[in-house]
Amino acid sequence: MNLQAEIPLDYMIVLSTIVFFVGLLGVIIRRNLISMLMGVELMLNAVNINFVAFNHYLFPHRLEGHFFALIVMAIAAAEAAIAIALIINIYRQFATVNVDDVDELKY
Amino acid sequence: MDYSYTLLILLLPFLLFLFIGLIGNKMKPQLSGVLGTTGLLVITVLSYFTAFNYFTNKTGEAFKAIEAFQFLWLQFTDKLIIHLGILLDPLSVMMLVVITTVSLMVHIYSMGYMKGEVGFARSYSFLSLFTCSRLGLVLATNIFQMYIFWELVGVSSYLLIGFYYERPSAVAAAKKAFIVTRFADLGFLIGILILSFYTNTFDFNLLTSDDGPAIAQPATAVFMGLSVTTWAMLLIFMGGAGKSAMFPLHIWLPDAMEGPTPVSALIHAATMVVAGVYLVARLFPIYHFTSPDSLNVIMYVGSFTSLFAAIIACTQLDIKRVLAFSTLSQIGYMMVALGVSGYGSEGLGYMASLFHLFTHAFFKALLFLGAGSVIHAVHSNLMTEMGGLKKYMPITHITFLIACLTIAGIPPLSGFFSKDEILVAAFEHNKMVFAVQWLVAGLTAFYMFRLYFNIFWSSNREYHHTPHESPASMTIPLILLAVASIFSGFVPFHDLVTTDGLPLQTEFHAMIAVPSVAIAVVGIIFSAMLYFRKNPKPESIATSLSGIYTFVYHKFYIDEVYLFITHNIIFQFISRPVAWFDRHIVDGTMNLIGNTTVFFSGAIKRMQSGHVQWYIWYFTSGALLLVLLILYLN
Amino acid sequence: MNPLLLLLLIPLLTVIGIALAKGTKQVRLVSAIGMSAQLLFAFVLLFLFYKERNTGNTEDMLFVSSTMWYESFNIQLKFGVDGISVSMILLTAIVTFAGIFASWQVESLSKEFFISLIILATGVFGFFISLDLFTMFLFYEMAVIPMYLLIGIWGSGPKEYSAMKLTLMLMGGSALLLVGLLGIYFNSAPDGGRLTFDLTEIAKVHIPLAAQLFFFPFTFIGFGILGALFPFHTWSPDGHASAPTAVSMLHAGVLMKLGGYGCFRVAMYLLPEAAHELAWIFIILTSISVVYGAFGAIWQKDLKYINAYSSVSHCGLVLFALLMMNETATTGAILQMISHGLMTALFFALIGMIYGRTHTRMINEMGGLMKVIPFLSVVYVIAGLASLGLPGLSGFVAEMTIFVGSFQHTDTFHRVATIVACSSIVITAVYILRVVGILLLGPITNNHYLELKDAQWFEKLSTVTLVSAIAIIGLTPFWLSDLIREPLAHMIQNLTNL
Prior knowledge:
The complex is a heterotrimer.
Chain A (H helix, E strand, L loop, with lengths): L1 H5 L2 H21 L3 H26 L5 H31 L13
Chain B lengths: L6 H17 L5 H28 L9 E10 L5 E8 L1 H24 L6 H20 L3 H19 L6 H32 L4 H5 L13 E2 L2 E2 H16 L8 H4 L5 H10 L4 H8 L1 H7 L1 H22 L5 H22 L7 H31 L15 H15 L5 H16 L1 H26 L15 H16 L5 H4 L13 H22 L5 H8 L1 H8 L4 H48 L6 H22 L1
Antiparallel strand pairs in B: 1-2, 3-4
Helix pairs in contact in B: 1-2, 1-4, 2-3, 2-4, 3-4, 3-10, 3-15, 3-19, 4-5, 5-6, 6-8, 8-11, 8-13, 10-15, 12-13, 13-14, 13-18, 14-15, 14-17, 14-18, 15-16, 15-17, 15-19, 16-18, 16-19, 17-18, 17-21, 18-21
Chain C lengths: L2 H18 L2 H32 L7 E9 L4 E7 L1 H20 L7 H20 L3 H22 L4 H28 L12 H6 L4 H18 L8 H8 L2 H26 L1 H28 L3 H22 L2 H32 L10 H4 L1 H14 L6 H13 L5 H11 L1 H17 L16 H19 L2 H19 L2
Antiparallel strand pairs in C: 1-2
Helix pairs in contact in C: 1-2, 1-4, 2-3, 2-4, 3-4, 3-10, 3-13, 3-19, 4-5, 4-10, 5-6, 5-10, 6-8, 6-9, 8-10, 8-11, 9-10, 9-12, 10-11, 10-12, 10-13, 11-12, 11-17, 11-18, 12-13, 12-16, 12-18, 13-15, 13-16, 13-19, 13-20, 15-18, 15-19, 16-19
C-alpha cells in the first residue's frame, strides 16, 4: 500500500495526540456537559486512531488493534447513551447543563 | 495556780464577734453595744485578776513563763507544730492589762461617739474581732500562733479603717494599710521560715531560753555576709516595722485616720502599732545574744523614725494626723530603747521600752479620744477650723492638757518616768542617738502644745453650731484615762517586766532628767509664743521656710514615691506587660497553632472541590509532568 | 457491695431520674436530691473510712474491689480510696452540691444541662476512686467532654470559641497523657511479667530510668494542662469567662484538681526518679505560674478573668508544692487543692450571682454593691480573705503548710523558688483588695442598683455551704491535715528513697 510510504507513523501519532488534547481541553475547560461529553468522545477516538495506526504499521499481520478499536467504539456508544441520559435528566432537574450549577452533592 | 480560765479571755471576744456579726443587724443597735462592752468588761476583769495573780504569786526569784493552755492546731513536720495556746509571762500579762483597759475605754466611748451611725452593730463586731486577735497575739505561745493573730490584726484593722466604706478615701486608706503591712508580713513570714528551719521549733519558751536551739547553737550559715540568724531576725523585724509603722513602712499610718476616731485610738494607742515593739521584746534574747547587728538596725530605724515623724508632726493641720505622727515618734522611742538595751542587769532599755509602751498606751488613747471628742463637737478634723474650745468643753480640755503634759514628759506625770528611762538607756549606749532623742523630746512638747493651743485657745471663733461637751459615755473614759496617765508612772515597772524576770535596779539620773524636762519646757514656751493667741507669726515662719515647709508638710513626698512605684512601676511595667504577654504571646501561640491548622486545611480543602474537571486537570498535568520527568532523566 | 460504687451509682440514678422528670422544677428537685444524697454519702464514706482505720486496717487503700474488664490488655475496674481520695471526694461532693443550687435559675434546656453537669461530676468521682490507669483515663475524659457542651450551649460571650479552645487544649493534654500512660503500661513489667494498668502494682515495680525520663514529661504536662501549668493555662481565662456559673464552679473547683491529683498519683508516684531528675524545670515553670498569675490578675477588669488568673496562681502553687516532694509540702498541696476548690467555687458562684443582677462583669462598671446586696458582698469579702490567706480560713492553712514544707530544702534554688512563691501573698492581697474596693465598697455608681435584691434562699444555701466548709477547714485544720498526711508518709518514702 502506498499509504504506508506516503504517510509515516509519526503523522498518525501527532494527529492522535492533537485530537486527544483537544478532547482533554474540551473536558477540562468547557462547562457544558454536552461539550464535555464530546471531549470525552474525542479522546476515545484519539486512542482509537492510535490502536489502528500502531496495529497497521507495526504488526500488519495481526488484528488485535482493529478489534480493540471496535470494542472501544461500542463501549463509547454505550457510554454516550448513558451520559446523554444523565445529561437529559440533569437538564430536567436543574434546567441547565452547566456543570458548575450542578453541585448539590458537594454540600 | 490554775490559769486555764484565761482561755475565756480569747474565746469570749471571738464569740462576741461571731454573735454580733451574724445577728447584730437584727437586734437593736444599742443592745449590741451593751453586749460588746459588757463582754469586754468581763475580759478586763479577768485580765486584771490574772495580772494580780501572776504578779503576786511569784515562785522563786524570777517570774516564770506559764503555759496556761495549749492544744495542737496543725502539724507541719515532726518538730514544727503549731499549737494554739496561752502563754503568761510578765510581758504578756502586762500587755493583757494595757490592751483590755484601752479597749474597754474605747468600747464605752464608742457607745457615745458612734451613736446613731448606720454600722453601729458592725463596729462592735469588728472591735471584738480586733480585741480577740490582739489578745491572741500577745498571749501566743509560739511564733506561728503570733503570726496567725498578727494577720488577723491586719485584717481587722482593714475592716475598721475601712469602716465608712462608702467613702473612697477610707477604702483607699484601708487597702493601703493592709497591703503595706502585708508586704512587711512577707518579711516576717520568711523570717519565721528561716528561724524555724534552723531551730526546729516555733515555741517561744524554747526559742528564748538560754540553752534553747536559737541561742545555744545559733545557725552559722552565712548568706551575703550576714549569718542566717541575723537575716531571720532582720526579716522578722521587718514584719514588726510594718505593723509599728517604722520608716520606711510608715506610710499607711497617717491615712489610717480615715477610720472612726475610737478605732484610731485603739489602733494607735494600745494595740496594733505597738505589736512590732512587742514582737522585738518577745524575741529579745535572740536579738541580744545572736544578732546584735539587728539590734543596732532597730535602734537606728527607731531613732530616725522618731525624729522624722516629729518633724512632720510640727506641720500637719489635721489633728488626728498630728497624733498619728506623734505615735510614730513615740514608737520610735520604744524601738530605740530596745535597740540600746542589754540583758539581765543591763536590761534597762528593754524595761524602759515596755514601760513607755505601758504609759504611752494610756496617754495616747486619751489624746485620741479627746481629739474624737473635739471632732464630735466641731465636725471637722482641721485645727484651722478650731480654736477657743476651752470654754465649751471643760472636761475634754483638762484631760487633753494632762495628756499633752504627759507626752511632753513633765514630771510627775507618767510620760516623764518612762521617757527618762529611755534617755538614760540611750545615753549609756550611744551618745548620738541620745542627742537625737533629746531633741525629739523638745519637738514633741512643741507640736503637742501647738495642737493644744490651736484647739483650745487661739482665736475665739464663731461656730455654726455652738460646740458642747460630749456625753458622759465619752467623758468618763477620758477622765479614767487621765487618771491612768497621771499615775501609771508610779507602777514599779522595773520589778515586774524585765529581760530575765528578775527585778532591775534603777536610779534617778538628774543629769538626764533636768535637760530633758528643760527642753520640753522650752518647746512648750516656744509653741505658746506662736499659738497661744492667734497671730501671724506661724504664717510668716512657714512662708520664710516655704520650700522646706511644703516638703515637710507633704511628708517628704514619701507617699508619692510609693505611689509612683506601685502604680507606675508595678502596675504599668509588670502587671500590664504580664497581662499583655499572656493575651498576646502565650495565648497567641495557642491561637496561632489553631489558626495555622485552619489555614492549612483551608488550603488543602481546595483540592477536594468535587469539580471533576479540576481533578482531570491535576491528573493530566501530573501525568504529563511525570512523563517529562522520565524523559528528562533518560 | 463496695460502698465506693455508690459514688457512681447515685449520680447515675440521678441522671435517670432527671431524664424521666418533667419540667424544670422537677429536674431541679431531682438533681438537688441526688446531689444532697451524694454529699451525705461522701460524709458517710469519711466516717466509714475512719471506722475501718480504727479497726486496725492499715492497708494503703481501703474498700478495694477489682473486676476484670478487658482481659487481653489486663484492664480492670479497680476502685479503692485512701485519705487523699476521700478528702478530694468530699470536696467534689460539696462543690457539686453548691453548684446545683447556684444553677437553680437555668431555664433553657434545664434537663440536658443538669444531666451534663452530673455526668461531669460522675467522671470526677470515678477518677478519684480509680486505681487503674485506664479507667482513670476513661473517667478523666468523661469529665472533660461534657464541658464542651456545657460551655458551648449554655455559655455566654464568645462561647463557641471558648468551648472549642478549652476542649482542644484539654484534649491535647489527654493525647500527651495517653502517650504517657501507655508508656507506663508497656514498661510496667520490665522483668517480663504481665503488663498491667494497676496503679498499686506499678508502684511496686521499678520502671527503667530511660523510660521514666521519656514518659514523665508527657504524663506530667498532660495532667499539668488541666492543672493550669504555665504556659498551658490560657484555656482557663477564656473557658471560665464563657462558662455558665455552675460549670465554672465545677471546673475550677474540681476539674482542675484532677490535674494536680493526677500529677501526684500518676506522674510522680509511678515515675519517681524522673520526677527527681526533671523537677527543677517544672519548679521554675510553677514558680512563674504563681507570680505570673497573680500579676496577670492585677490588670484584669472582668471578674471572671481575675478569678481565672488567680486560679492559675493558686493552682501553680499546688504543682509547685507537689514538686517539692516532701511530706509537709505535699500535704500542703492537697490542702491547697481543697481550699482553692472551695474558694474558687465560691468566687464563681458569687460572680454568677452578681452578674445575674447587674448584667456586667466589668469591675469598673460597678461599685458600692456592699450597700445594696450586703449578703453577697460580705460573702465575697470572705472569699477574698480566704484567697489572700487569712488565718481562720482554709487558704492560710494550705499556704503555710506549703511554705514551711518547701523551705525544708536547704539548697539555694529551692529557697529562692520558695521565696518567690511566698511573695505571691502580697500580690494576691493587692488584686483581691483592688476588686473588693472597686466592686463592693465606695459609693453606689449606678442608681439602678438600688433596686437590686439580695440573695435568694438557694443562693444563700449554695454560698453558705462553701463558706462553712472553708471556715471549718480554716479553724480546725488538724483532722484534714492528718487525713491527708497519713497515706503520704510511705508514698513520699517511695519518692525519696531511691
